[in-house]
Amino acid sequence: MTAEQAKERIEHLSKEIEQHNYNYYVLDNPTIKDYDFDMLLEELIKLEKQHPEFLFSNSPSQRVGGQITKEFKTVKHKYAMLSLANSYSKDDLKDFDERVKKGLGITSTDLFGSDIEYVCELKFDGLSISLTYEHGKLTQAVTRGDGVQGDDVTTNVKTIRSIPLTLKGDYIDFFEIRGEIFLPLNVFNDINKEREEIGDAPLANPRNAASGTMKMQDSSVVAKRKLDCFLYYMMGDNLPAKTHYENLEKAKAWGFKISPYTKLCANIDEVFNFIDEWDKKRNDLPFDIDGIVIKVNSYIQQQQLGFTAKSPRWAIAYKFKAEQVSTVLEEITYQVGRTGSITPVANLKPVLLAGTTVKRASLHNADIIAKLDVRIGDHVFVEKGGEIIPKIVGVDLSKRKPDAEIVKYITHCPECGSLLERREEEANHYCVNENGCAPQIKGKIEHFVSRKAMNIDSLGGETIEQLYNEKLIHNIADIYELKKEQLLPLERMAEKSVNNLLEGIEASKQIPFERVLYGIGIRHVGETTAKKVARKVRNIDALINATEEELVNIDEVGGVIAKSVAAYFSNSENRLMVERLKRFGLQFELSEEQLQSTTDKLGGKTFVISGVFQKHSRDELKDLIEKNGGKNTGSISGKTNYLLAGDNMGPEKLKKAEKLGVTIITEDDFLTMIA
Ligand code: IVH
Fold first, then answer.
1. Which of 228, 256, 293 to mutate to test the pocket of ligand 1 (most atoms within 8 A of CB)?
2. Residue from 534, 583, 533 nearest 561 by CA
3. What is the fold, at CATH topology level, of the domain defined by 438-510?
4. Distance 59 CA to ligand 1 centre (A)
5. Would you say residue 474 has pLDDT above 80?
6. Would you say the CB of residue 82 lies under 6 angstroms from ligand 1?
7. Closest protein CA for atom 12 of ligand 1
8. Structural element, H or E, at residue 38
9. pLDDT, tens digit, for every residue of 134-147?
C-alpha cells in the first residue's frame, strides 16, 4: 500500500467508524455487528501505527483513551460560563415571564404578538462542558470551573462516544457548544455493583461520579466509564439561525446529541404543561434530571434582555421539588458487608415515595447520624435522589418527642459481637472478625464462586446459606471437602443438582491463578490488580513472602493495596486456608504457557512510554513491559530508568528526560532488551 493509499484508507475508515459511533451512541440505532466494528477499528489502529504521520488528533482511535493528563491546564473561557437563576413555583415563573415581557417592551395591552416563544428543556444533572469546534473538528473541551476559567479536559472528553470528533454537513467554521456530561443510571448501577464486589464504598450519585470521572488522569479509565453528553447551547459569531431552537436542530444535523425531550412553547401556559408532564415522568428517564430549563427562543430578544452579573435574563431553571415525605424512624439496624464494613440502616414506618413504598433508608455512617442529629421515634424527611435507596435529609424538630432516644452508635458487631474498629481516614466502622462473622463468611464464599472468580454457578446464594446453616461450609476451602452423601439428604438437593454442584467445584480447580487470587477476596484487590500481581509474583508463596515495599513496586499497586495484601497474609487463618486450597489442587502459580510469555528481564526497571510506534501499539508495549517484570509510569521523574520514545513525542518530555539523565530508547532497542 502506498502512503497515499494508506492516507485514503485511514480517512475512509475514520469516517465509517465515526458514522457507526453516531448510529450507536446518538441515534441509538446500530447498523453493524460489534465484531465487524471492532475489525474496522483494529484495521484503522494498525494502519495508523504503520503510518504515524496520518494519525490525526481526532481519529476515532482516540476514543479508547490511553493518554495520561498529569495536570489539567487551566483555560480562560472565551464566553463566561454563567449559571441560571432558579425558580421553584409557577408564580416564580409568571414573574419571570412578566420580567421578560417588560424587558422587551411588550405590554399586556398589546393584542397581538404579545406572547414570547420559549424553549423548554430538561435540566440534566451532571457537569457542564464547553466544546470548541474549528473547521468541523473538536479542538478543545473545558469544564465550567469558576465560570471564568476551567480545566482543559479534551483528552478525556474525546472518549465520550456521543460527542462528535468531526462534524458533518453544513457546519460553521468556528463555534462553541455547551452541554452536560452525565452518567446514565444503568452504568452508575453497574459501577457500584462492581465496587461492592471488591469491597469499595459505592459512589454517592451519578452526578458526583460523572464529575469525578472527568478529573481522572488516565483517559482509558474514563473511556470505560461510558459517560454520555447532551448539548444544549451554541455560541459563536456566525450562528446559522436566529433562534435557539433552530440552532439546536442544526447542531443535531452536524452530529451532536441533542435532547429529544425539548419543546418549543408559544406562551408560559405551554411551559407549565411541559413542567407538569415531566414532574410526573422524570423517574422513568434513564438519567437524572433536577428540573426544567426555560429559554427565550429568539436571539434578538435574548440580546435585548442581556445578562445580570451571574446569569442570563432570558433563561431560568425551574427546580423540581425533590420528592420528599415525612415518616417515623422506628429503629436503626446495622448491616455487615462482605468486607466487614458496617452500614446503619433506618427502618421507617412504610410510606409512599415516588411511586414505591419505602421502608428503609441508608444512614451511611456514624458521622451522618451525628450530623443529622436524628433520634429514634423522630419524624424524618426522606428523599429520593440519584441513589438507589432513599436517604434521610432532615428531622422535623417540631414533632420531636421529649423522650426521643439519642442514637448510640454500636460498638460491637451485630452479627458476631466483636469490637468494631474505625480506621483512620475511613468513614465506616468495620468488624475485623473476618473469618468468624456470618455475613462476612457467606459474602466471601459468594464472591469466591462468582463468575469472574471461580465461576461455580451451581453454587448460588441460597445454597451457600443452606450449606452454611447446615455447618457444611465455614470458609471457601470447605467447598472442596463437600461429599455427595452429605449433600443428598439436604432439602432441594436432587441427585442431578448435587452432581452439577460437584462437577462445578471440580472444574474450578483449573481456574488460572489470577482469578483464584481475585477470588480469595483480599480487600482492594480487584480483577485487574489480581492479574498484575499474579504476573509479577508468579506464585502464591512469593506473594505471601513479599514485603510491603516490594508490593508497592508492582504496577497498579499503591500503598493501600500493599497494606491490605500484607495484612491478609499476616493472618495465620488465611495462610492456613490457602494451604488447604493448594492441597485440593487449585492453581496457585502461573501456568507453563503464562510463564513462557513472562520473564524478569526488566525486573525493577521503570518505563515511560511516549509518542507513536511502528511495530506495537502503546498498550502492547505496556503489556510487554509488565510481562517482562518492568513497571509503567505516566510521567518522567528521578525514578524513571527508560524513556521509550516513539515518533511525535512531546519536546517537553524529551527535555525533562535529558535533564534527569533518563536513558532514551527506541522501540527496536526495547525489543532487543526483551528478546
Ligand atoms: S443552559 C447561560 N440548559 O444547569 C445558560 N443548562 O445552573 C447556560 N444545565 O451550569 C446553561 N441542563 O450545567 C442549560 N438544558 C440545559 C441544562 C443546563 C442542565 C445545567 C448547566 C448549568 C446549570 C445552570
1. 293
2. 533
3. DNA polymerase; domain 1 (1.10.150)
4. 29
5. yes
6. yes
7. 123
8. helix 34-50
9. 999 999 999 999 89
Among 339, 348, 353, which Cα is nearest to 520's? 339
For the chain, give the percent of residues with pLDDT over 90.
67
417 phi-psi bin (left φ>0, alpha ψ -120 to 50, beta other): left
The pLDDT tens digits for 25-42 are: 999 888 988 888 989 999
Band of pLDDT at residue 109, cut at 50, 70 and 90 = low
Identify the pLDDT of residue 626. 83
Domain boundaries, the chain: 3-64, 86-319, 323-431, 438-510, 513-596, 606-674
Give residue 409's pLDDT band: very low, low, confident or very high (50, 70, 90): very high
Rounded to the nearest integer, the mean pLDDT of the chain is 91
d(CA 528, CA 452): 11
CATH of domain 3-64: 1.10.287.610
Indicate which residue of 33, 70, 101, 123 is catalytic: 123
| Cell output for 671 | 525489543
The reply to whether 123 belongs to the active site is yes
Residue 645 has pLDDT above 80, yes or no: yes
C-beta of 180 in contact with ligand 1 (< 6 A): yes
Cα of 178 to ligand 1 centre, how many Å?
9
Q: Is the CB of 316 under 6 A from ligand 1?
A: no
pLDDT value of position 437: 96
> 319 and 331 in contact (C-beta within 8 Å)?
no
Atom of ligand 1 nearest to the CA of 315: 5
CATH topology of domain 606-674: Rossmann fold (3.40.50)
Instruction: List the strands of the sheet with 315-319, edge to edge.
Output: 86-87, 315-319, 289-296, 118-124, 263-265
Q: From the CB of 346, is ligand 1 less than 6 Å away?
A: no
> Which amino acid, one-letter code, is at 119?
V
Q: With a 6 A CB cut-off, is 538 part of the ligand 1 pocket? A: no
- Give CA 145 to chain center in angstroms: 20
